[in-house]
Amino acid sequence: MDYILHGFLQGFVLLFSGNDETYSAIWATVYASSLSMTASLLIGVPLGFLLGYHEFRGKKVVRTLVDTLLSFPTVVIGLMVYALLTRNGPLGATGLLFTVPGMALGQAILGLPIIVAMTANAVETLDKRLPQTLLTLGADPRQVLWATVTEARFAIILAAMAAYGRIVSEVGISMMVGGNIKWHTRTITTAIALETGKGEFALGIALGMVLLAVALTVNIVASGLKRRARQ
Fold first, then answer.
1. Is 195 helix (H, G, I), strand (E, B) or coil?
2. Which domain holds residue 119?
3. What is the reported pTM?
4. Dihedral Cα 67, 119, 85, 183, nearest 10 deg
């Protein structure tokens, strides 16, 4: 047990001494997850609204597909994005393979179904009279969208937090698409996997504490939003 305690003590030292390698992984994680969350929200919220608001042929099939993608293995997404971005792939000319934006592309695909599904559920649970009332008052489609999203804002924020929690903790996409390049695309999760395998427990524990802090923050905010939504 001594080596675990020693690892925790060294982990604290690395965090509070501003260790460059530690904060390089933290920065890559923050950068990639911020890009992917922005893309997931910009695409997923309108799609979730359309899926929850409109009735159309094949809606059940689309909902089943979206729900299936919620548990899509990250390593499979990483494989698909790698195939797209590799030199011989259709997007090989973009040069995104082994870059942070390339990782963000894969992570956006991971988070998108969560945003779409939870936004659709939130829209479906709203008062059915709201859209008709808005249309009767002369609102255009964009105003109906904005008012509906505003009413469902707490559920959408929770969706964003759930997506962020999955994105920030994934390994497969970051490893395959990012390549786990030190000082460049090495994220918290890939660094933990690599350093622990090398026996460098201190750095792994330091980065693990960062992930735990992120998870704790997300859960505290989610609990607060749930309480506020019930009031």
1. helix
2. 20-188
3. 0.84
4. -110
